[in-house]
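Notes from hallway chat w/ T.B., transcribed later so I don't forget. T.B. wanted the structure written out for a chain they're using in a teaching module, and asked if we could keep both sequence and structure tokens in one place. Agreed to drop them here.
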Amino acid sequence: MEGLMVGLTSMTWQMFVMMIIGGILIFLAVKKNYEPTLLLPIGFGAILANIPYTSVLDQVEGGHVVEGALSIFFRVGIMTEIFPLLIFVAIGAMIDFSPLFRNPKLLLFGAAAQFGIFFTMILATLLGFDIKEAASIGVIGSADGPTSIYVATRFAPNLLGPISVAAYSYMALVPIIQPPIIKLLTTKEERRMRMDGGGNDRKISRATLVLFPILVTILTGLFAPTAVALIGFLMFGNLIRECGVLNKLSLAAQNELASLVTLLLGITIASTMTADRFLQVSTLFIIGLGLIAFMFDTAGGVLFAKLLNFFLKKKVNPMIGAAGISAFPMSSRVIHTMGLKEDPTNYLLMHAVSANVSGQIGSVLAGGLILALVH
């Protein structure tokens, strides 16, 4: 009987709190539809990981380590970086870069909207995090969950749980976080600003679409070899999409691969969300700093667009700059919806998509740059 009651008698209030947090994440996923493919497995995994003597984590029995399923997944899938890189293949297969070719100047917003990453790195350092932890926290602002996980795995695996939860939570909250910031930084006239077609009717050749991922990978590798895994797997997925001879694999990457790896990634990340690791003051700092990074990335994109308009004959609607984050395609939809609210005949979707696609590239390059510069 004692053996049957050991879990109940060993339960602590901290474990109970973590189970509540897991339940909240499941609620947000099911009821609010916030990133359900990630938050639901993370939430359920948090419950699994906080049951006393849970068999999903490594346990010491009789002087021997009994390996748990989630601990094995963590070592094989996260610490080897396999899961995040497979997600990049899936994301690459989902992205159509042709809108960016039709309006290439919007590529600049993918760089401008990464400002919050580096600002937050400085702030996190001032709050006592070491440079590698600060870099991992800053990347939350890119609104790119896989990149956040990849950098955290390299630099701060002890912070992987809160960083992952913050990254995916803020991605889900894009429709809530971005509009107030955009409205604060723009006037009604600016939000109603029209943009021309930007070459939306121009046909992009298959050769261009096939060569693009190859050339981007080579150029990135020559200047930042540490970023090759990040950008290379993303571009490999895109090459599968655009080559025209691997349609079945492209669809499999976009659907089956993305779904399966995302589920495994989420529930495996939760293995780090044990009460002793997660319930710390640093977790609150990480979540708060992640929000700051996200807000400053949005603001950086909008302000850069306004600055650019001083030099452009054909002005850019400043809201487009906010789509330079990596939350694809959610952010572009938010911008388009805001534009329609201001003027029901003003369609900004293709322009926002172009900036949003550039944000996906920009976040990956920012992650690679951080890996190259931080030691």
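Follow-up for T.B.: Residues 281-308 form the longest helix (28 residues). Might be a good example for the class.
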